[in-house]
């Protein structure tokens, strides 16, 4: 990047990058128990399966030329 000023001639701006070490967060204990993690993963997979079925139903209706009710 070139920076020119009034009466100072041509000068070049060179940004100085300083790298600071990142401190890692220390966790006092477990964030989530094993059972809570299982419940969360089951919920996520259930929601993904439901969305896949809904998209498949919509695609089938579009292919068949039927009216598509997006609210259902």
Chart the SSEs and their pairings.
Elements: E1 2-4, E2 10-12, H1 34-64
Antiparallel strand pairs: 1-2
Overview in brief:
The chain is mostly helical. It is built from 1 helix and 2 strands; from the N terminus they run E-E-H. Helix content is 43%, strand content 8%.
Structural class of the secondary elements? mainly alpha
State the strand order across the main sheet. Answer: 1-2
Distance between the termini: 56 Å
Mean pLDDT: 76
Largest sheet: 2 strands, antiparallel
Q: How many beta-strand segments? A: 2
Whole-angstrom Rg? 29 Å
| Count of runs of 4 or more consecutive helical residues | 1
Q: Which range does the strand content fall in?
A: 5-15%
Element-level helix/strand string: EEH
Low-confidence stretches are none
Any idea what the shape is?
flat
User: What share of residues is helical?
Assistant: 40-55%
């Amino acid at each position: 990047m070139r920076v020119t000023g009034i009466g100072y001639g041509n000068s070049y701006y060179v940004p100085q990058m300083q790298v600071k070490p990142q401190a890692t967060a220390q966790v006092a204990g477990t964030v989530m128990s094993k059972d809570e993690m299982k419940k969360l993963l089951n919920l996520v997979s259930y929601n993904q399966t439901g969305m896949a079925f809904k998209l498949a139903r919509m695609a089938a209706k579009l292919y068949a030329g039927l009216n598509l009710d997006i609210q259902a």
